[in-house]
Amino acid sequence: MLEKLSALEQQALEALEGITEEQALEAWRVAHLGRNAPLMQVFSALATLPREERPLVGQRANQVKTRLEQAFAEKQRQLKEAWLARTLQAERLDVTLPGRRPPLGRLHPSTQQLRRVLSILAEMGFQVFTSREVETDEYNFQLLNIPPHHPAREMQDTFYVDAGLKDDTYNWVLRTHTSPGQIHAMRYFAALNPQDPPPIRIALPGMCFRYEQITARSEIQFHQVEGLVVGHHVTFSDLKGTLVDFCRRMFGQEARVRFRPSYFPFTEPSAEVDVECFVCGGKGCSVCKYSGWLEILGAGMVHPVVLQNGGYDPQRYTGFAFGMGPERQFMLRYRVEDIRFFWSNDLRFLEQF
């Protein structure tokens, strides 16, 4: 039996020498150290040996088992080191190279432009006044001189909101423009001194929503900045001077600006303001509808009915208002050809700004 153990030991060690893969090493372990291995059968047969041979055979069997386990562990270590060496050779890393700077986050282009607009208006004396995005039909339309069934409601398709109230007195909508903020602002300031409300010069930024077809120059959601000036002896000349100054601050002193007569229910008279299209240089493209001009805002003198609804006496006060789209201005500044880029989350576009 002792000779058999020596033969098993020598045979196992010789088989171990030629192993170069983890899978073959595992097969060797099962064959020589597993439950059904010849060495394990020797332990099972100890009880059948004569009493005087059992200590010697048992001691020798344990020595062989320990020797094979040590050889197995050493071979396992060698294979791991060889695998690591091959891996490091295949994936060599030059530690002397400079590290890669992680990309930094930044403001969204729309936010950048929105802040630029508000910064320019702040330089011109406007204060920021915010209002809610979910409005009642009354504030979004009726108090702005757009009663139910008024044809002007067809100018802007509306998202209606289910408020989930048992007694829903109002029709709730996602605001289609920032103009409802005019009523909120006027009523706020008028409440400070009902007999003699203070003058107003504010900018109302925010997101607007319209249910319309998405094209290169229109989206279902967009930012808008509303401007409102109310006081004594405010004229259309004040409106024109303010907007021309704003456009030149935004697009440069040489920017060409034009006013066109228009119609808005909440202003009278009304106008639309265009800036020469910088995308095509005035030659005509899909962004400007091949006109050479891009509309950037609508404006006009605040309608007397709107002043009255806001708590200001139209016999004593006049005012003007305007609404502009920062994304469209951003398109002019950087010659962006498609407004859909702002909301597509394409890093190739966003990382340019």
Question: What are the main properties of this structure?
Answer:
single chain; 353 residues; alpha+beta; BirA Bifunctional Protein, domain 2; 2 domains; 11 helices; elongated
Count of helical stretches: 11
| CATH architecture tag of the largest domain | 2-Layer Sandwich
Q: How many domain units? A: 2
CATH class placement of the largest domain = Alpha Beta
**Widest β-sheet, arrangement of strands:** 1-5-6-10-9-8-7
Q: Shape from CA axes?
A: elongated
CATH homologous superfamily label of the largest domain: Bira Bifunctional Protein, Domain 2
| First and last CA, distance | 83 Å
What about the largest sheet? 7 strands, mixed
**Poorly predicted runs:** none
What structural category arises from helix and sheet content? Answer: alpha+beta
Radius of gyration: 41 Å
Report mean pLDDT, rounded to a whole number: 86
CATH topology of the largest domain: BirA Bifunctional Protein, domain 2
- Could you tell me the strand content as a percent range? 15-25%
Furnish the topology, listing elements before pairings.
Layout lengths: L1 H16 L4 H12 L4 H7 L9 H37 L18 H15 L3 E2 L5 E3 H4 L19 E2 L10 E3 L5 H13 L7 E10 L11 E11 L4 H16 L5 E8 L2 E10 L16 E10 L1 H6 L8 E7 L1 H9 L12 H4 L3
Parallel strand pairs: 1-5
Antiparallel strand pairs: 2-4, 3-4, 5-6, 6-10, 7-8, 8-9, 9-10
